Amino acid sequence: MKTAFRYDDIADAYAAAVDSAPYNALYERPAMLKLLPPVSGTRVLDAGCGAGWYAAELATRGALVTAIDASGAMIGHSRHRFASAPSIEIADQVELKAADLEQPLSFAADASFDGIVSSLVLHYLRDWDPTLAEFRRILKPNGWLLFSTHHPAAEQIRLDTPRYLEVEPVEDYWKWAGTVRYYRRPLSAMIEALTNAGLAVERLVEPLPTDEFRKVKPESYERLLRRPEFLLILARPWHPA
Q1: Could you tell me if 209 and 225 are in contact, meaning their C-beta atoms sit under 8 angstroms apart?
Q2: Which tens digits make up the pLDDT trace of 106-116?
Q3: Which residues contact 218 (CB under 8 A, 6 or more apart)?
């Protein structure tokens, strides 16, 4: 039986390349920022902060950010980002913590965050229910959750899985970072987990690649027009009448 995947194993390679990786820099990130609610003067959790790009972007936009990651090595890369120019200028707006999304977020009080950003993180979790319940607990009544994940239809086609409706483990190799392990799940399982946690979908976006992406990877651009690789969801707490 394989041990749980941890980003410590690929942290250095990932941190060195992710900010210029086209699928991140020119596809997922522009779409996420387009969907991001206003954050100036708000408190935002960056859930699975990696090397700190989103934490820096949120702070630049005026948010007070708590950035967490289960990988101590990734937190180290985030600390390096905020100790260096230009992010050192916003370092006092960002609190970095090592914290596992599969465990209770004990550092956070109820209704203490205006928003949560979680970029390409949730597919590493086998069970979304406990994590989304914690997100719902720490969000203010009018708060929001914005996350991205692998597109379930694209993953089904790429992996040729025989049972789309099951949640199944996947092992993949990224030539720029290394071997990763995560979970493929159907769209219905995603929506059910959100509903179970008391979160209602406000926007669901299948992003288009940017023109900058087309210039760098023209063949991949055409493929993404036919088959989006990511899915973005903006959700908010719902309140029974």
Answers
A1: yes
A2: 999 999 999 99
A3: none
What sections of the chain are H helices per DSSP? 11-17, 22-23, 29-35, 53-60, 72-82, 129-138, 152-159, 187-196, 211-216, 218-226
pLDDT score at 26: 97
Closest Cα to residue 26, out of 195, 169, 213, 161? 213
| Calpha distance 203→192 (Å, rounded) | 15
Report d(CA 8, CA 171) in Å as an integer: 16
Averaged confidence pLDDT in the chain:
95
Q: 147, 139, 125, 134: which is closest to 5 by C-alpha?
A: 125
Q: What's the pLDDT at 197?
A: 97
| More confidently predicted of 237 and 175 | 237
Is the four-CA dihedral 88, 92, 97, 101 of positive or negative sign?
A: negative
* Per-residue pLDDT, 1: 35
Whole-structure pTM value: 0.96
The angle formed by the CA atoms of residues 204, 205 and 211, to the nearest 5 degrees, is 170
Say what the pLDDT of residue 13 is. 93
Phi and psi angles of residue 11, each rounded to the nearest 5 degrees, phi first? -60, -45
Q: Residue 83, CB half-sphere, CA atoms under 13 Å: how many?
A: 8
Burial letters 25-53, b for 16+ CB under 10 A, else e: bbbbbbbbeebbeebeebbbbbbbbbbbb
d(CA 19, CA 28): 11
